[in-house]
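Figure 6 in text form: structure in, sequence out.
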């Protein structure tokens, strides 16, 4: 029944959209899939994937997961039925997407995961991502260096069930918990990687406090930018706000003082590296030397803005 529904979805054009030239028979078709193109981070990742596929002689089939694991699952199943030669995917939810990814592996289709690793599925060709634990630690280390005598902190966590959210939160706690009780997380709640939720959750947090926090740390830039709006509305300009992802808008705010910092995890490099591994395997069966490749995230402040992967897009 699920396969029948998937075919209907695909036929209606909801599951997959092909890029130009997708019918060329001499180019291997590659599914490029991200959790949702409503997020600027994943738009950048998708563009990098497609560019790398085309540079490698393939044709990209774009999948917008629409922040829905059933939708992304349908896209993967439709791609399997289509007979794509490879899949590069950033899963919406690692556990929910495991069955579809396993189905692709069992069908003999090489799969490379990017950003979010599905460790429960054996046979995935490779994973390329950022070390999100180290990224969270970079946030924590920045807080400790800025506030050596301690700080009160609001922690906006990412999407529940998403491995980057879990790992970034772990890294942040690794540093702050080890630094002692003088670093107090006074409010901690998920805002779903979403800007509007970052705004509303921060408003609720600030409304319930007698004294504003010294720091707001967010697991992505969208939430940090939402928090920034809540802080501005209350004229609380002294609060340090730290994001994650180094989006162009966030880099501009770091430059202009709206945000204190963001974390660069090099998503374009992740995507290009993942595609290179996939295309090399498709062409001649070459497997990567390491099954897991993790890039080390870096904190970006006014002092080192030039390392931002997307600084060229900042106006």
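Output sequence:
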């Amino acid at each position: 029944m699920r396969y029948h529904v998937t075919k209907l979805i695909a036929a209606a054009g909801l599951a997959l959209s092909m890029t130009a030239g997708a019918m060329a028979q001499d180019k291997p078709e590659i599914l490029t899939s991200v959790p949702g193109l409503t997020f600027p981070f994943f738009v950048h990742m998708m563009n990098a994937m497609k560019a790398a596929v085309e540079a490698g002689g393939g044709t990209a089939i774009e999948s917008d997961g629409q922040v829905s694991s059933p939708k992304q699952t349908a896209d993967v199943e439709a791609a399997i039925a289509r007979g794509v030669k490879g899949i590069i995917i950033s899963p919406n939810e690692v556990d929910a997407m495991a069955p579809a990814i396993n189905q692709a592996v069992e069908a003999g289709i090489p799969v490379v995961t990017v950003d979010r690793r599905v460790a429960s599925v054996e046979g995935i060709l490779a994973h390329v991502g950022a070390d999100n634990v180290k990224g969270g630690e970079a946030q924590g280390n920045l807080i400790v260096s800025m506030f050596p005598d301690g700080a009160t902190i609001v922690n906006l966590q990412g999407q529940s069930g998403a491995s980057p959210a879990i790992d970034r939160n772990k890294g942040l706690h690794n540093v702050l918990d080890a630094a002692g009780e003088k670093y107090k997380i006074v409010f901690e709640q998920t805002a779903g990687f979403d800007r509007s939720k970052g705004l509303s959750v921060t408003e609720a947090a600030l409304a319930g406090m007698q004294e504003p926090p010294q720091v707001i740390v967010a697991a992505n830039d969208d939430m940090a930018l939402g928090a920034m709006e809540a802080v501005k509305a209350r004229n609380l300009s002294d609060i340090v706000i730290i994001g994650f992802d180094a989006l162009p808008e966030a880099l501009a705010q770091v430059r202009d003082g709206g945000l204190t910092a963001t974390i660069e995890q090099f998503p374009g490099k992740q995507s290009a590296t993942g595609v290179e591994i996939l295309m090399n395997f498709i062409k001649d069966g070459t497997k990567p030397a390491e099954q897991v490749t993790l890039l080390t995230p870096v904190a970006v402040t006014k002092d080192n803005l030039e390392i931002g992967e997307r600084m060229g897009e900042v106006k």
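Caption detail: The CA atoms of residues 257 and 302 lie 8 Å apart.
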